[in-house]
Amino acid sequence: MKNASGTVVWMLGALLVSILVGAGVYFLLISPELEKTSTATTELESARDFNDLLDTQILAAQTAEKNVDDWYAEIAAIRLDLPPTPEQAAFERLVNDSLRKQGLPTVGITYGTPAYVVPPAIDVGVAVGADPAGSTPADAGTGVDATASPSATAEPSAEPVAPGDTPAPVADSPQVTGLVQTPVTITTEGKPVPLLRFLLDMQTQNSRFFTVTNFDISRSAGADAEAARPLLEEGDWVINITGLVFNLFDPELSLPIKEPATTPPFTGDITRNAFVPIPGTGNASTP
Amino acid sequence: MNAVPEAVGAPRTPLVDLLPPEIEMLRKEKRAKRLIVVVVVLFIALLGGAWYSVYAVRTSVESDLAAEQDLTGAKQAELATYDYIPVLRAALDNAVNARALAGSADITWATQLNSLLTAAPSNVSLTTLAVSAATPSEPLLLDGTPFQQPDLGQLFFSGDAASEADVAAFQDALDALPAFQNTYIASITMGPPAEGETPYWTFTGSTRISSNALSERTVTEQEFVTPSPVPSAESEG
Hints:
The structure holds two protein chains of two kinds. By secondary structure, chain A is α+β, with helices and mostly antiparallel strands. Helices cover 40% and strands 14% of the residues of chain A. Among the domains of chain A are: 1-66; 83-134 and 168-248, Ribosomal protein S6/Translation elongation factor EF1B (Alpha-Beta Plaits), CATH 3.30.70. Chain A has six helices and five strands; from the N terminus they run αααββαβαββα. Chain A is elongated, with a radius of gyration of 39 Å. Chain B has helices spanning 21-80, 84-102, 109-119, 164-176, and strands spanning 124-133, 153-161, 180-190, 201-209. The radius of gyration of chain B is 55 Å and the shape is rod-shaped. Chains A and B meet through helix 1, helix 2, helix 4, helix 5 and strand 4 of A and helix 1, helix 2, helix 3 and strand 1 of B.
């Protein structure tokens, strides 16, 4: 009996030792490992998901990159219309060439001050939609995002606008930053067809975007031909055209840094006097 | 004591267990204790094996994690090479929107003036035409009357007519044009009478510019220009 009870004591002791060792190993060694494994597994899944997301983004970027050349080309094309710098001299040449092509005199050109265009708070489409006539020129297959045009976003509506109502703001205009407008007034005179051709030419040329916002035409009473001004007959037009030319401000291109250079010093030699009147002009004959 | 002869065939060891039961019990107890020790050792070994397997899994997962994180860094570096694309796309969108905004109130006036001049009755002679049209900043205008509708501005005109009916005909002709609406005559006055001359009436008025007049040329491709009608010979002079 004594021996049997000793074995039982051994068994109980072994069980106790096993429980203690098992608990110790579990809580001190296995459990922390399990926690670390669980944390690492969660992080691994997150990392894999994130990598999948990155793969998707890289794929999207690679797909988008195929269009980059087209985008650069389109931006370059738009910069023709909306150059980053004023390019006023080029516009003057454009106007003068266009007038000369039609045999029209440049009676006067005046420029206003450049200012940022503040996009309207309302959708231009309201006007289109409210127009009972409804139709606007079709623009199918242009290849350019039609939503970029405020007028293209409107749903046509035959409902008239209630008297006294102002158009309800339906949507913000496209976000545009850096669009600068400069008013230009061109005065010329002549027969209607050359004048209309000049207007058409100015509004359809591809050198610089020009939109006419105001003009006034008055009937000429007739005038003799003068230097650079052809004969005006009764019924000819005298026209002042006010329009806008635009620039798209680009911080990298709109503020060019002048290369360092020095002006040749005055050496005492006579230089050209730019105040001398141009020979043959009215100013030259003034005493 | 003499040895048992071989011929007897007696067993070499005694066949009767002569050990006392206490000895046998002690031996059993020793075996039991040894077994217990072995079981405990095996249990501890099992625990060690369990720990090692968990450890191995953990190190494997951490190794995979490290590899995946390295991959993340590489992918982020690769993605960073495409950072210019959203910037470029934004610049393109801004440029396209800017061009659309710049032309949002654009009207091809050569075409519209030509249609107006062509539509004018032969007994009407214009003396002035003036336009105050919408701009990109102010694309909608209202005339302030109960009949107002949002439009693109106003065209003022004045002229001479052979009769009052010709003024009305001119008004109808303007309203019939797609680009103009709500033509309003402000005054009709008999011209200064002159001896032997045909009587005439001077008139002034205005018409509103409808959205049909919009050229929409800034929503087309930059390289493409819609051919516009050339002014006809009728409008000359």
